[in-house]
Amino acid sequence: MYENLMETVVDADNAGKALKAVEANKGAPGIDRMRTTELRAHLRKHWPTIRSKLLEGTYVPSPVRRVEIPKPSGGKRPLGIPTVLDRFVQQLLLQALTPIFDPTFSDSSYGFRPGRSAKEAVEAARGFAEEGKDWVVDLDIASFFDEVNHDVLMNRIGQMIRDKRVLGLIGKYLRSGEMSGGVVTAREKGTPQGGPLSPLLANVYLDPLDKELEERGHKFARYADDVNIYVGSERAAERVYQSIKRWIEKHLRLRLNEEKSDRGRTWEQSFLGFRITEDREIEVTPDRLSRLKATVRKMWDGRQNGQSSDLRDRWLRYIRGWWAYFRTATDRESIFRLEGWIRRHIRKCFWQRWHDGRGRLTRLRRLGVTGRRLRVVSTSRGAWRMARHPVMHEALSNKCLRRYGFLLPSDFVALEGQ
Q: Please, how many CA atoms are within 13 Å of residue 258, restricted to the half-sphere of its CB?
């Protein structure tokens, strides 16, 4: 029952891996303002003392720094940012606990697990639809990370772990409190998003739900607190929804957000930014495409400061990350329909950045435009209209944009191997 787990937690090899993970993840500083770049030097000096405190069970975590980030759907999402040192200690715990708990988790759990991904969750959903289970019960747990019951969670962990030092340390992290505006607020429930350990604790907490769904013979996919159950009819969907809602309230002491939880056909519901069409294809949901378009408008606003290479590099980082996730889609028509629109925004941005007639004349000449076509620099047309002008298509042709490194949606196929 892992009675001496803390020795594994503070093992030198485990510590080395944890340090590299925290440095690689970077992230904002906590309440002490220490940055990840300072962690290695801090541990070189203080690790023997920290290690002794962990082994003795006397290590005390710092409160997390509370911040709120905007949700794409509106409102704010609270995050608790631990200090860099506490992120390191949580990473130590995560690496020791994952080999213990992960093998016990359901095959239908995909979120934040080694070797598992959102892509697999969505492909599983597609498989259920192909079997004829194209009614989905979409469960949205209200404020999950804020409402986790500490007693339920610690009891679940205690079934596997007997080392009181490890249990005590996890309990301290759950109760460490949040600092906002210089005031520390105690926490009696919830596990703050923002630390390395939080996703594993979420999976430990929700694993009994997975087991209950398996025992009932349901087809489902769960990614963290996003749970979709697939059934064969509207009547079954309503029955399952009401039954599982009661089970969650009784056994997990959580409640569903009934405004966001829903029952419907797979092509009417979204799952991790995708939906399964009537033809059993996977497509990106319209709201995620809208977010992409909003980002394009923002990133290719010609009023920004910085070099053109800075705009390009930010765009490449964003679009590569976006594609790495959304290339799961098997129906990509809605994505590729945007390529001309995106190119127009890029051309619009450069027309704006060339500022005036003199600047535009210089740039167009450099790009090979000659003769009477240069008269366009004196136009009174707006930047958006000029972005589709033949002269701009000649100056900033698709070939030219690629030559200068501006990746376009039509190049996504080339990213498949990256």
A: 8
Cα-trace Rg, the chain: 26
Taking 70 as the pLDDT cut, the residues of the chain under it are 1, 71-76, 180-186, 407-418
pLDDT of res. 177: 78
Structure tokens given for 168: 């005590």
DSSP-derived 3-state class of residue 227: strand
Q: Which helix (H) or strand (E) holds 230?
A: strand 226-231
For 152-165, letters b (16+ CB in 10 Å) and e give bbbebbeeebebeb
Question: If residue 64 lies in a helix (H) or strand (E), which one and from where to where?
Answer: strand 64-70
Dist CA 222 CA 31 (whole Å): 33
Distance, CA of 193 to CA of 188 (rounded, Å): 15
3-state helix, strand and coil shares in percent for the chain, rounded to the nearest 5 = 55, 10, 35
> DSSP states of 171-213 as a string?
HHHHHS-EEETTEEE--SS---BTBTTHHHHHHHHHHHHHHHH
- Residue 145, both tokens: 């990370």
Q: Are 372 and 390 in contact (CB under 8 A)?
A: no
